């Protein structure tokens, strides 16, 4: 499902297959698909290589414009996504998964409405031992949170982000977390219900 361990492998496959079906690309030609600086580029590069296409990736200079330093890493050495715990060993990391597909918790995969998470397997790149606790959120709760974030906060984020917020709300209500900083990462945007 994600042979290069990128969450965007399937998107890369879909983009290449769609371009093939529309006769926009053919073998032996360079393929310039889109500018990217993240996992979409990884998925595209893997799928293009698997199908025999050459691919040109354009990284937007907006990253540098925002003050970011762009560092190309050696893929043979990998990345170590352990930094937070090295900086603060008291930090707690929470995973989130659909109630309907509780694979991280030892359950069986199942159908759910939360796109982007709960794929039914544990990716090889995920170091499960770094996760302190897994929070399960139902599809209905994720959708309810999506509506809440859109109407109350004006945030139009994807359903996996809404699921993360639902988990954070549950965590922040615990008595032991009074006064603590809870951070939620929104890895996507633009999904409305």
From TrEMBL:
Positions of the Tryptophan synthase beta chain-like PALP domain: 2-61, 82-186
Ranges that cross the membrane: 53-72
Annotated InterPro entries: Cys_Synth/Cystath_Beta-Synth, TrpB-like_PALP, TrpB-like_PALP_sf
Pfam families associated with the record: PALP
Record's keyword annotation contains Transmembrane helix: yes
Protein name: Cysteine synthase
Alphabetical UniProt keywords: Membrane, Transmembrane, Transmembrane helix
């Amino acid at each position: 499902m994600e042979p290069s361990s990128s969450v965007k492998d399937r998107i890369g496959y879909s983009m290449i297959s769609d371009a093939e079906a529309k006769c926009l690309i053919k073998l032996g030609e360079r393929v310039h698909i889109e500018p990217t600086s993240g996992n979409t580029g990884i998925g595209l590069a893997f799928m293009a290589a698997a199908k025999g296409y050459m691919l040109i990736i354009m990284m937007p200079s907006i990253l540098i414009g925002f003050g970011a330093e762009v560092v190309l890493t050696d893929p043979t050495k990998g990345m170590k996504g352990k930094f937070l715990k090295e900086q603060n060993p008291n930090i707690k990391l929470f995973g989130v998964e659909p109630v309907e597909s509780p694979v991280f918790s030892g359950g069986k995969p199942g159908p759910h409405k939360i796109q982007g998470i709960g794929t039914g397997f544990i990716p090889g790149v995920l170091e499960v031992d770094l996760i302190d606790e897994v929070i399960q959120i139902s599809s209905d709760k994720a959708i309810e949170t999506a509506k809440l974030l859109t109407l109350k906060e004006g945030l139009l984020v994807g359903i996996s982000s809404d699921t993360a917020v639902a988990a954070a709300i549950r965590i922040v209500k615990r008595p032991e977390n009074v006064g603590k900083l809870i951070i939620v990462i929104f890895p996507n945007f633009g999904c409305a219900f």
